Amino acid sequence: MKDVGPGIRKNNFIIVGRVGMDLFPGPGEATEGADTFSADMGGSSANTAAGIVKLGGKAALVTRVSDDAVGRFCVNKLHHYGVDTTHVTPVGGEARNSLALYESRVEGHQSVIYRNGAADFEMNVADVEAVDYARYGALVTAGTVFAAEPSRGASFRAFELAHAAGLPVIFDIDYRPYSWPSAAVAADVLSRAGALSDMIVGNDDEFGFMAGGKEKGLDMARHLAATTASIVIYKMGEHGAITFADGQEIKTGIYPVTALKPTGAGDSFMAGLLAAMADGMDIKSAILRGSACAAIVVSKPGCAPAMPYPVDLENFLADHPGPTPLS
Known about the structure:
Layout: H1 5-9, E1 12-16, E2 20-24, E3 38-42, H2 44-54, E4 58-66, H3 69-80, E5 84-91, E6 99-102, E7 111-114, H4 125-129, E8 138-142, H5 151-164, E9 169-172, H6 183-195, E10 199-203, H7 204-211, H8 217-227, E11 231-235, E12 241-245, E13 248-252, H9 265-278, H10 283-298, H11 310-319
Parallel strand pairs: 1-4, 1-8, 2-6, 4-5, 8-9, 9-10, 10-11
Antiparallel strand pairs: 2-3, 6-7, 11-12, 12-13
Helix pairs in contact: 2-9, 7-8, 9-10
């Protein structure tokens, strides 16, 4: 098993995955009754990259965007958040950037995702082979990159190249059923990706899906930690998380907040976790930092714009009574 710490502490990440456009009406508004919408950057990998940069790290994205106004909007937003776009490549034809239309409300929340002919699925082997992996400390990706070809093959190739360069691979399972041709394909491919990863983050549903039943998910997380991964984080929503690392099972709670929306928590958790580990924090402290970042994002509109800066995180931690206990 690879020690992920030295790579993460370089605080310079190569992130493989999508960037998209987010549209969202005002707080509490339903989409069908809204007249105006805010627009910003979305996509799990892009959000994680923005979160890392806002917390003081460096991140470069590898993806494809549509060669049109929406693709250029996404690239401009990556620049706005300080994400390196050297390996963000436009693709022509009928490929289109993904679009997420979601609401800033919890009760009755609606999210509509447009992923037909997604430009990010056009990422190919040449795109990932153009990266100088030795410049970075770790590779980060989310499961959606494996949902279709040529992105799937390119992502597995990126894993090979990262390992060859000595980089740890950090994998957010991030299972989105609408992106996959079938559940069976998803379970097989995500399991293969998990077995090649040095650090795995997922929720109880995702581990259970990979294992063939939610009741088997915790055992699968344990097995991965015992055989191939150095760190496995098994998230359980409001019930906190169990982390398997260094032969330990570390239990952590969450930071309760009044949520404005249910979206963006996982991306912010990953950014906060990696930023804290890059600062040299122990794994339990880093997980709690990630949980605090997740709480901040669900309490504000948008995803990338809601990601905290260090001062936002410190103020939140100073004002909050603390995480829930997990027995």
